[in-house]
């Protein structure tokens, strides 16, 4: 057991980690952080949820100097959600480095804002491969000063077909940077990538000692809709993620659950970024306790207490299966992963450790449904309008007379705020909010569906 306090890092960092509640290093952090600080290249494999983000974010924040104009650190990640998540972790531990500029670059958002941020001088750039290439070809991103390169979720990026893009991005870096590769699985193509871009890397492999935290169960069923109802009505989870392989299936299952009085929400690749964020927000704040998703959602989603992961469809690869079920039992908690399958052959290949169970053994409570505790109100104003949580809370409690106990999570983003209100009061609060002001300003509000 090693404590952050015993590491050779700055006092400010130790204090900050303590106030964030981080005390003991996870295995992957214990092995990676000292090597990174020594300047070594590493290839680090550890399962989802093992704390890889902090394993590179901590030494990077320690080592990087702020305000150098050109970026010194480049982090490539597979999805926009993950870029934001990494940026969030870095910012949260870097508050003592107030001038440190962290810029995220991913598709689906206008180039203009990203250009402005880059012009102001970025120290750490976090981006997806496609958008990074876009900026490189426009010469709006200059990589000549990069000292540290991180590939996060490298397995996933290769799955998505980004091998050549990654090589192309790296070819824009002048002197060879210290390179850190993180991955949950280690398929052959990672080996190839590592050989190409790393120099005598130290390989770190954390075996999944916590695996037994996830109870893996599989049910054979020809009628998957019947099966899913039986599963939900017997396991009775507070929240669950259900994975489907296709967008169409995701939409259909969402409709089916809705018809059966389960408060679900769905996301897949066709969703606009904002809709995706809003759906995830409604899931995380308890408005829609069931998330039906394709694999786009299985990355970059950081919600700690998902009790149950269900594979409505078995994924095509065991690596995808590992990632999906890694959404439960995070940070030492227990979790259950259930798969519905049609052929035993496929189950053995994808999920060899799942225990096959007969669906007729389930104790189904026909009356059971899951409904969200809250509804989410969207306020069309955020940090840019200098709105804070406290302002919204003040209006709700003082002006509208709402009891604190009926208010759930309040999330304030750049442009918008999202407030979870007990569903019995949400409509009323929504109506009143339309006609009142927050900090003397009137905002457009609506109820998220
Ligand atoms: P990975 O990238 O390996 O999938 P994350 O970096 O997303 O994992 O971390 C998973 C969760 O563990 C996060 O909620 C994070 O805050 C938490 N975590 C990370 N390091 C520690 C630690 N040393 N102690 C306690 N919790 C931690
Ligand atoms: Mg990660």
Structure summarized in a few sentences:
The protein is of the alpha/beta class and about 450 residues long.
Description:
The mean pLDDT is 91. It contains 16 helices and 20 strands. The strands form four sheets. A seven-stranded parallel sheet has the order 3-4-2-5-6-1-7, sandwiched between helices. Helices cover 37% and strands 20% of the residues. The radius of gyration is 23 Å and the shape is globular. By secondary structure, it is an alpha/beta fold. The chain folds into three domains: 4-205, 3-Layer(aba) Sandwich (Rossmann fold); 210-361, Rossmann fold (3-Layer(aba) Sandwich); 374-447, RRM (RNA recognition motif) domain (Alpha-Beta Plaits, 2-Layer Sandwich). It has helices at 11-19, 27-37, 52-63, 80-93, 111-120, 129-137, 154-159, 163-170, 188-197, 224-235, 247-259, 273-284, 318-325, 344-350, 389-399, 423-434; strands at residues 42-45, 73-76, 102-105, 124-127, 148-151, 178-183, 202-205, 214-220, 240-243, 264-267, 290-293, 308-311, 335-341, 355-357, 374-379, 407-412, 417-422, 437-438, 441-442, 445-447. Residues 52-53, 152-153 line the site of magnesium ion (MG).
List key phrases describing it:
16 helices, binds adenosine-5'-diphosphate, binds magnesium ion, 449 residues, alpha/beta, Alpha-Beta Plaits, Rossmann fold, 7-stranded parallel β-sheet
Secondary-structure blueprint:
Blueprint (H helix, E strand, L loop, with lengths): L10 H9 L7 H11 L4 E4 L6 H12 L9 E4 L3 H14 L8 E4 L5 H10 L3 E4 L1 H9 L10 E4 L2 H6 L3 H8 L7 E6 L4 H10 L4 E4 L8 E7 L3 H12 L4 E4 L3 H13 L4 E4 L5 H12 L5 E4 L14 E4 L6 H8 L9 E7 L2 H7 L4 E3 L16 E6 L9 H11 L7 E6 L4 E6 H12 L2 E2 L2 E2 L2 E3 L2
Bound molecules: adenosine-5'-diphosphate (ADP) and magnesium ion.
The site of adenosine-5'-diphosphate has 17 residues, from helix 3.
